[in-house]
Inverse folding.
């Protein structure tokens, strides 16, 4: 079947309603950029799931980061997309304006260099991300250990994708199938999805980011769902191997152990995080227990429902009215990879 | 040129994207990767890449080796996505 026929099939599909979740911000953005929703029959719905590690970082974590940044001789270093995430009272950006010492990093290597040149300062790395990013932090720890650098610590809020997918399967039986993330799967491997596919009888298809990949993934999922199949299919084999990146996984495993973790807007998901192993706790900047405090959303913010795919962003009364990328109220609007941020930018393109 | 620089720096700072580049130097632990003319230091420890390979780089770390064709496709997609971000 060629692409034209596939698109015809998807646009004229008239069976039972099918709901497919994508769990990667870049997939969501590509779906919009390429107008893929407009190619689909109204009976095929794409739902955006928790595809943004920044958006699910608890506000207590941001508070803790700010606390470090305000201490004398402390520097908090972070990737840029964390800057605007709201904490309980302010974001890192606002704290920086108030004099907190917050610096952006391109790569963790520069932090290690700065730390060895400035032994009097303590560098706190805001270590946020999914399995894609966890190896980066493991490699930092290896260098800290080797070079005996003791003025760098990690404030971790690392999250694991598969337990979140399992949580969604467990709590939401309206999602019929999943487009698995591309880059996280490069680390995890396609085999990781077999267990959850089998247990919850939902198909998983791993896709790249080009329009054709995503259309093919949707086609495969629709075919599987209508035939009541639940296979794991890898349509991105040039990047994702069945076993994933084994070296990366062994690095993660060396330094981190699995822990339960709080996802903003969702709550605690068992086994969904990584924390430093006991032997490496000396590098920890107080990352544990950053998820039990009051984690309510601001005002009428419905990011919790957006993250779980229960509503689309325009169904939130704050969306585009009081909540915009320039003045974000909720975490999903903050990050360019967040569902609300993507909808804000792209819905006008598609409309 | 400025556009490519903007693209590069805005993309590398985000947490769930990975940008492809050409390996021009590597000792297996650290390397130099060429992103359309901009050369950056990249950690190479978790991939088996040699000079001339294309790698996907995420958060300063190469996470997978990809073909030239795939590298070009991904770079093109991110250039398109970035142009939309810059419009808004």
């Amino acid at each position: 079947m060629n692409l034209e026929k596939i698109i015809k099939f998807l646009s004229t599909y008239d069976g039972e309603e099918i709901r497919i979740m994508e769990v990667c911000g870049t997939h969501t953005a590509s779906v919009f950029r390429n107008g893929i929703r407009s190619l689909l029959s109204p009976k095929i719905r794409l739902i955006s799931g928790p595809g943004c590690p920044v958006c699910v970082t608890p506000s207590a974590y941001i508070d803790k980061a700010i606390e470090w940044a305000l201490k004398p001789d402390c520097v908090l270093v972070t990737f840029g997309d964390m800057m605007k995430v709201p904490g309980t009272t302010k974001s890192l950006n606002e704290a920086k304006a108030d004099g907190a010492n917050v610096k952006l990093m391109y790569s963790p290597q520069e932090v290690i260099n700065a730390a060895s040149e400035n032994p009097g300062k303590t560098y706190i790395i805001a270590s946020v991300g999914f399995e894609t990013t966890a190896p980066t932090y493991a490699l930092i720890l290896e260098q800290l250990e080797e070079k005996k650098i003791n003025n760098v610590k990690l404030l971790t809020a690392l999250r694991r994708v598969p337990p979140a997918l399992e949580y969604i399967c467990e709590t939401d039986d309206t999602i019929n199938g999943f487009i698995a993330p591309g880059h996280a799967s490069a680390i995890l491997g396609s085999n990781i999805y077999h267990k959850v596919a089998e247990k919850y009888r939902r198909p998983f298809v791993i896709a790249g980011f080009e329009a054709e990949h995503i259309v093919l993934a949707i086609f495969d999922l629709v075919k599987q769902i209508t035939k009541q199949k639940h296979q794991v299919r890898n349509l991105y084999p040039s990047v994702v191997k069945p076993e994933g990146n084994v070296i990366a996984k062994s690095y993660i495993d060396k330094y981190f152990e699995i822990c339960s973790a709080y996802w903003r807007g969702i709550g605690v998901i068992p086994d969904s995080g990584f924390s430093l192993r006991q032997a490496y706790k000396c590098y920890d900047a107080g990352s544990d227990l950053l998820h039990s405090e009051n984690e309510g959303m601001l005002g009428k913010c419905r990011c919790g429902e957006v993250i779980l795919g229960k509503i689309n962003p325009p169904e939130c009364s704050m969306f585009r009215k009081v909540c915009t990328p320039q003045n974000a109220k909720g975490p999903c609007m903050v990050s360019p990879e967040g569902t609300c941020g993507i909808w804000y930018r792209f819905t006008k393109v598609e409309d | 040129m400025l556009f490519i620089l903007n693209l590069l720096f805005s993309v590398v700072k985000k947490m769930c994207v990975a940008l492809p580049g050409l390996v021009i130097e590597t000792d297996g632990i650290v390397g130099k990767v060429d992103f359309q003319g901009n050369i950056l230091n990249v950690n190479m420890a978790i991939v088996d890449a040699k000079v001339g390979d294309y790698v996907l780089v995420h958060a300063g770390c190469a996470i997978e080796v990809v073909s030239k064709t795939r590298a070009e496709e991904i770079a093109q997609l991110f250039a398109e996505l970035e142009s939309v971000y810059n419009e808004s």
